[in-house]
Write a structure and sequence with these properties.
The protein has helices at about 1-30, 35-40, 45-55, 60-75, 90-125, 130-140, 145-160, 170-200, 205-210, 215-230, 230-240, 250-255, 260-270, 270-300. By secondary structure, it is an all-alpha fold. Belongs to the binding-protein-dependent transport system permease family.
Length: about 300
C-alpha cells in the first residue's frame, strides 16, 4: 500500500508540473498582455517600471523559471496583476474555504441522496419509486442549476420566508445553494447507481447467495452495494476539484464570496498570476482526489491489486 501511495504521489507531482508548464506557455502565447490598457496612458518610464515589476519584460522561459522557483521554494504564486498588492496565495486562502464549504456540502448531499435513490430505484424496478427517481434524474440532467437556484429562492425565501435569499454566514445561508449545486449530482449518482445495482443483481454470485439463504440486508450491503458503488466513487474524485470552478453561477446568484468569481474574472482580465495560481490549486485538488479514489478502490474491494501484481 505504501509503495502504491508513493508511486501515485510521484505521478501527481509530475502531472502538476506538466499542467503548470502547458498553462503558463499557453497564457503567454496569447497576443497582448494584461498591462497594455493599464499602462497605455502612463509615462514611458512608469510603464517600463510596471513591466519590470511583474517580470513581463523578460523572456517567457525566464518568467517561467522565476515562477517555478518561487512556487517550489517559497510556495509563492505571485501578485495579482488586476489587484496590485494582493497576493494570489492570500486570495486563495481567503476565498477557497467559502467555495470549499459550499462544495463539500453539495457533494455530500449529492452523493448520499443519489446513491440511496439509485439503490431504491434498482430494487423497485418498474414501480413508482423507480419512475420517480428517473424523473428526478432527468430533471437534474436537463435543468440548469441556476434555474433550480432561482426556483428555490422563490419558494423558500419569497413565498415561505424560511431561508435567506442571498448572503453568507451561518448554516442556513448554505442550504439553498447547496441544494441547487447538488441537484445535478443527485441525478448523476442516482442513474449510475441504479444501472450498476441492476447489473450486479443479475450476476451469478448474487443468485448463489440468494440460494444459500443469505438475508436480504446482508445481500444488499455486503454484495450489491459494495460492488455497485465503485463506478460512483470514480465520479466523486473529479467533482471535488470542480466545486471551485463549477459553482460560479450559484455563488453569483446567492452573493457568496467564493473563489469562483475570482477565477472567471482572472480569465476575463487576463490576470496571468491569478490564472496560474488557481490553475495550480485546482489541478492539485483534482490529481490528489484521484489518488484518494484509487486508494478507496482497494479499501472497498480488496480484490483490486494496488501493486499491479499477480493474484
Amino acid at each position: 500500500m505504501l509503495k502504491f501511495i508513493a508511486k501515485r504521489i510521484g505521478y501527481m507531482f509530475l502531472t502538476l508540473f506538466i499542467v503548470t508548464t502547458i498553462t503558463f506557455m499557453l497564457i503567454r502565447a496569447i497576443p497582448g498582455d494584461p498591462l497594455a490598457s493599464m499602462a497605455r496612458k502612463l509615462p514611458e518610464q512608469t510603464r517600463i517600471n510596471y513591466y519590470a515589476k511583474y517580470g513581463l519584460d523578460k523572456p517567457v522561459i525566464v518568467q517561467y523559471g522565476v515562477f517555478l522557483k518561487n512556487l517550489v521554494l517559497h510556495g509563492d504564486l505571485g501578485e495579482s496583476l488586476s489587484y496590485p498588492g494582493r497576493k494570489v496565495t492570500t486570495t486563495i486562502m481567503k476565498y477557497a474555504p467559502v467555495s470549499g464549504r459550499l462544495g463539500i456540502q453539495a457533494i455530500g448531499m449529492g452523493f448520499t441522496l443519489g446513491i440511496l435513490m439509485g439503490i431504491i430505484a434498482a430494487f423497485k424496478r418498474n414501480k413508482w419509486p423507480d419512475y420517480l427517481v428517473m424523473f428526478i434524474a432527468i430533471l437534474g440532467v436537463s435543468v440548469p442549476n441556476f434555474v433550480i437556484a432561482s426556483l428555490l429562492q422563490y419558494v423558500f425565501s419569497v413565498k415561505l420566508h424560511v431561508l435567506p435569499v442571498i448572503g453568507w454566514g451561518s448554516f442556513k445561508y448554505t442550504i439553498l445553494p447547496s441544494i441547487a449545486l447538488s441537484f445535478g449530482s443527485i441525478a448523476k449518482y442516482a442513474r449510475y447507481m441504479r444501472a450498476n445495482c441492476l447489473d450486479v443483481i443479475g450476476q451469478d454470485y448474487i443468485i448463489t447467495a440468494k440460494a444459500k439463504g443469505v438475508s436480504k440486508v446482508s445481500l444488499v450491503f455486503k454484495h450489491v452495494i459494495r460492488n455497485a458503488i465503485l463506478p460512483a466513487i470514480t465520479l466523486l474524485g473529479p467533482q471535488i476539484a470542480m466545486i471551485f470552478v463549477g459553482s460560479f453561477v450559484i455563488e453569483s446568484i446567492f452573493s457568496i464570496p467564493g473563489l469562483g468569481s475570482y477565477f472567471v474574472a482572472s480569465i476575463t482580465n487576463r490576470d496571468y498570476t491569478m490564472i496560474m495560481g488557481q490553475t495550480v490549486f485546482i489541478s492539485f485538488l483534482f490529481v490528489a482526489s484521484l489518488v484518494v479514489v484509487d486508494i478507496l478502490y482497494g479499501v472497498i474491494d480488496p480484490r483490486i491489486k494496488l501493486g499491479g501484481g499477480k493474484k
